[in-house]
Design a protein that fits this description.
Structural class: alpha/beta
EC number: 3.2.1.52
CATH architecture of the largest domain: Alpha-Beta Barrel
Enzyme class: hydrolase
CATH topology of the largest domain: TIM Barrel
CATH superfamily of the largest domain: Glycoside hydrolase, family 3, N-terminal domain
Shape: globular
Radius of gyration: 23 Å
Family: Belongs to the glycosyl hydrolase 3 family.
Number of strands: 16
Number of helices: 17
Organism: Nocardioides iriomotensis
GO molecular function, one term: beta-N-acetylhexosaminidase activity
Strand order of the largest sheet: 2-3-4-5-7-9
CATH class of the largest domain: Alpha Beta
Amino acid sequence: MTEPALRRLALSVLMPGFTGTTPPPWLRRTVTEGLAGVCLFGHNVEGADQVRALTAALRDERPDVLVASDEEGGSVTRLDAGLGSPWPGAATLGALDDPQATYDVAVGLGRQARACGVDLVLAPVVDVNSEPDNPVIGVRSFGASTDLVSRHGAAFVRGLQDAGVAACAKHFPGHGATTTDSHVGLPVLDVSRSVWSERDLPPFAAVVDAGTAAVMTAHVVVRALDDQPATTSAAVLRILRDELGFDGVVVSDALDMRAIADAPGGRAAGAARALAAGVDLLCVGNPTFPDGYDEVAVLEEIVAAITAAVTDGTLPLTRLEEASRRVGRLAARPVSDPLPAPDRDALIAAGTAVAARALTVAGDIRLRDDAVVVVPRPVTGYAAGRKASALVAELQARRPGWRFAESLDDTVPAEDTDVLVVVEGADTVALAPAVAAVLDVRPDAVVVHGGLRRADDQGARTIHTHGSGAATARATALLLLGEEEE
């Protein structure tokens, strides 16, 4: 095979991120050369019209280029990174446990993505969140029950794909039992194969049966399966192919995550190992978060590693060609023309109606006309990115005269002034002392718990939202204020 042909083949299995809100020249060039696609991140998005122009510009270079985006609803969105997702997240849908509602949300989310030119949605998360202190999955999962995750994962896949976008269920073989975030380290699970196969495998079987177009790997070592991360483990990926019968596209989680990037040879060597193991499409990652890097240099480094691996025989050419064919089939899959997406107000109204049904309330949580809102600083999750509280933004818009602070100061609010504590972020347990400090002064404070529900959650007057995002925030604000959707 000639060097240009091998380079084109290597590009055909790569999906990098890029900086900017328009396609840079290097990206246009490599799309023309055969780059499989791109993954959008929050910094690529200013609004729906801009994203449509961006994706149209990419398709002007090559019509079958793939455009992917993390659109899970709730805390994880790229298309709505600036304003918050208009759709409730997985834990909210799991708490409601209405598969029809989950399907409807996925249809709405899929239509929104399709209207923007996105054709591969990196969702749903079908990890069973069996570890309450999981730092990266948490409310991104439908829950801690295998059956619950299975039925909602399947419903979400069907909804997305009925809306005309390809679904990518994640993160095989399961990231829900970890206590390490693979963005910052390599999670290792010491669990028996029988526990894993009964707890973590069934949701993936369910989404494969539902016809998911793609499955994303986890950078997680499950010792009972192999001593390598699943992304680079042929033994693990054979389970997906041979036991579950999956013949779609296996997508890697981002190669710039430290579970792969910090391994010998870094992300470039990891890319070649992943392809050799059975991955078809390599997600390179986000060149701005958490650590910035030269997106062009990294792409070329990975291309060089793939071509070198083919040359030295560690990556069989037939395996690379197989991966390229699978990605090509995904890019060429027949889909209907995109329907016009409803405007944002309509999207939020639909999402809010679902989120409102999932809120769990204890005590009288309605606030009076004057309140102090305490917002302890949350721990930011890497998957969600850096963003302010959508609930705080909603309350500030509706009650601009209220006071918002990270803690109560020396002045205790008067008895006719309500106190509201908003507990959000990746690690709500870390905020427990801050909540206790408020309740010591004002035991009548209303506490909004935005994370996973726990037996030791504080407060006598509480709302559990089971997640965040614009839809959940609006539903919560309306309930607190005794208002109705306009």
